[in-house]
Amino acid sequence: MTENMAKPKANRTSRTSGARKPTTKAKKTASARTKGDWRGQTLARMRALILEAEPEMIEERKWRKPSNAMAGVPVWSHHGIVCTGETYKQVVKLTFAKGASLPDPSRLFNSSLEGNTRRAIDIHEGEQVDTGAFQALVKAAVAQNGPPAKKAKPSANAKPGARTAKPVKLLSGGNPQIAKGDGEAPVQAYIAAMPGWKRDIGKRLDALIVRTVPDVRKAVKWNTPFYGLEGPEGKPAWFLGFHCITKYIKVAFFRGTSLRPLPPVESKQKEVRYLHIYEDDQLDEAQFAAWVQQASQLPGERM
Fold it and tell me: Across the chain, what does the average pLDDT equal?
């Protein structure tokens, strides 16, 4: 009788032992193994490239939770988050916080392509990432974050609570009203005033144009940014401009009928062709850069 009563007790102990969940120590051991395998080596290699591209990058770990063994996610920042690094079973993922606004002619971004803000690079075992192209992305992300915003000092004659600047007025279709002016400042003022998702596209277009034509001249005329090159008489000849419409951004190539392939949208003007960019469109950066390169080599418009 005593032996029969003792057996069920032994079985209960056995079942409880077999169902026991992994301890925190076991999870940490698994995490340590990951650090030594190809994923850890890949993340370490990309980390070195990030810090080499921007030596003043701030490096920290955030979002510590049980799913990552409380180790957190590596985050690299420079006046705002530049990118994060995560390891998964099949890939190492580097996510750029504002990747959708960055020029990526080498097409390193291969994940998180559906949104209008983030972009990611998934690296599988054995894959190598183009060092120069990756570091160019890091530098572009740092440049986009810019320096920390400085608070404007109130004028000595200003009344307490008085506004120092009026907000930019948006015209029909949400197009910013910016005074005519030559140079970088009015163009950046226009881009900063572009509403919603259009602002990031504006930054992206501007960066692609500058990267393709480094000596490009800029101006704002008739509430539109213009891009061109200096002509033989010292006056710029414009080859491209863009403008906000209610549901899209209209990019105008002033000699568009000479480009190959033709930009997709016709114009009532004989030589002009348009590219319309909607919110959910995936901008083909390589094709856009090719059009910009061709357009810059054609006779521009004097305006």
Answer: 84
In the chain, domain spans = 25-143, 172-296
pTM above the 0.85 mark? no
CA atoms within 13 A on the CB side of 13: 5
Residues with Cβ within 8 Å of 180's Cβ and at least 6 positions away in sequence, in order, are 186, 219, 220, 221, 222
Residue 294 contacts residue 259 (beta carbons within 8 Å): yes
Q: Give the pLDDT band of residue 251 (cuts 50, 70, 90).
A: very high
Closest to 286 measured CA to CA, from 110, 119, 99, 107: 107
Beta bridge partners of residue 83, listed in sequence order = 76, 96
Distance between CA atoms of residues 31 and 34, nearest Å: 5
Residue 252's beta-bridge partner residues?
A: 241, 274
Residue 227 CB partners (closer than 8 Å, separation 6+): 209, 213, 216, 217, 218, 238, 239, 240, 241
The CATH class of the 25-143 domain is alpha beta
With residue 191 as reference, give the H or E element that holds it: helix 184-193
